[in-house]
């Protein structure tokens, strides 16, 4: 289990935004075993759902749980009434889980490359991970990939979206967040239901991340709430910047002329440089705050760096788009859909232009 500080860091990158069950049903490439665990896991989740309205009306329920669920319903109504997000049964049902995460994602890369191993499905398109409903299965899959010489990383997921194919439940794994972060998570996952472009993870996650951020800003204003953990957010961005800089240096290394033996040595040296830069930031500007020590001091590899940066790459572009339509949510979604219908190269160029504004 990852520490709460790292959970906060990777909250966006560990949301599986693919319809897992349908992907397995429709993919001829999925192994029978993999299909079976996806099917069982998702069906178990669906069977565990309970209407939030019933839980709120039940005097035998835990008052603390009822208070959290009541707050989620306020945010859920706000999502549809003010943010023009889908008005359906998602996040109006609740599923308790007896585990810390709903799914564990397995990321993999070659030893001397940052290119992820991808898995493609007819509905969801290609994604850079495979999801497992049991930690043991995820670790077993990672071990098999390691035997093939790949770098691997296993990350827990608090929530995922079925893109509107099912009524997605609030999960007990989501309730570790405070009320504001939980509202943001609801906005993010509903945004995936509003718009999803096959084979473009950066577009999808940046779009949902912008809706989350802007939606949370408007939600706070509507509730008279102050910003929370501003220092923590700054630290998250600084830590992410360290990782992205390290990843850029590794990319240059792997693209360079050195032989594999020298690349392996330089890779190990780069990870030591990253740890040293982290310690300098921690002991200096952060005044000894050790919130990311566990992550940085654990084994590092290419796969562990994959989630960073990808999921907010185009947030400035969507912010520019939102300004152009003067904050009109339906108009914003219409413009985003137009971008999503462009051919990949044209979409990339349009996002780059928007990012530069």
Describe this structure in words.
By secondary structure, the chain is mostly helical. The protein has a domain at 4-97 and 155-223. Helix content is 56%, strand content 8%. It contains 15 helices and 8 strands. The strands form 3 sheets. The protein has a 3-stranded mixed beta sheet with strand order 1-2-8. Strands 6-3-7 form a 3-stranded antiparallel beta sheet. It is globular, with a radius of gyration of 21 Å. The two termini are 40 Å apart.
| Sheet/helix structural class | mainly alpha
Query: Helix count, per DSSP?
Result: 15
Overall form: globular
Radius of gyration: 21 Å
Can you give keywords for this protein?
357 residues; globular; disordered N terminus; mainly alpha
């Amino acid at each position: 289990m990852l520490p709460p500080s790292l959970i906060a860091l990777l909250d966006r990158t560990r949301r599986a935004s693919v319809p897992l069950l349908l992907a397995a049903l429709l993919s001829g490439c999925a192994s029978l075993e993999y299909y079976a665990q996806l099917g069982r896991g998702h069906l178990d989740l669906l069977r565990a759902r309970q209407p939030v309205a019933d839980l709120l009306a039940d005097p035998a329920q835990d008052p603390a749980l009822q208070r959290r669920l009541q707050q989620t319903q306020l945010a859920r109504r706000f999502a549809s009434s003010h943010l023009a997000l889908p008005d359906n049964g998602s996040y109006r049902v609740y599923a308790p889980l007896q585990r810390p995460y709903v799914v564990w994602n397995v990321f993999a890369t070659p030893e001397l490359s940052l290119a992820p191993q991808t898995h493609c499905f007819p509905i969801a398109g290609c994604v850079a991970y495979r999801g497992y409903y049991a930690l043991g299965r995820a670790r077993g899959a990672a071990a098999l990939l390691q035997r093939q010489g790949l770098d691997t990383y296993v990350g827990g997921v608090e929530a995922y979206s079925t893109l509107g194919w099912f009524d997605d439940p609030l999960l007990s794994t989501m309730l570790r967040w405070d009320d504001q972060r939980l509202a943001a998570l609801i906005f993010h996952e509903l945004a995936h239901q509003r718009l999803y472009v096959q084979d473009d993870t950066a577009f999808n996650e940046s779009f949902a991340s912008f809706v989350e951020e802007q939606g949370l800003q408007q939600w706070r204003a509507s509730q008279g709430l102050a910003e929370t953990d501003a220092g923590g957010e700054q630290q998250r961005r600084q830590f992410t910047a360290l990782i992205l800089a390290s990843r850029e240096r590794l990319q240059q290394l792997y693209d360079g002329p050195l032989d594999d033996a020298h690349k392996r040595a330089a890779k190990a040296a780069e990870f030591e440089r990253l740890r040293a830069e982290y310690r300098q930031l921690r002991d200096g500007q952060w005044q000894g705050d050790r919130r990311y020590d566990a992550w940085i001091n654990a084994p590092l590899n290419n796969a562990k760096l994959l989630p960073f940066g990808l999921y907010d790459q185009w947030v400035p572009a969507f912010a520019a788009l939102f300004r152009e339509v003067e904050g009109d949510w339906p108009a914003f979604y219409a413009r985003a859909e137009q971008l999503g219908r462009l051919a990949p190269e044209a979409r990339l160029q349009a996002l780059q232009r928007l990012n530069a504004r």
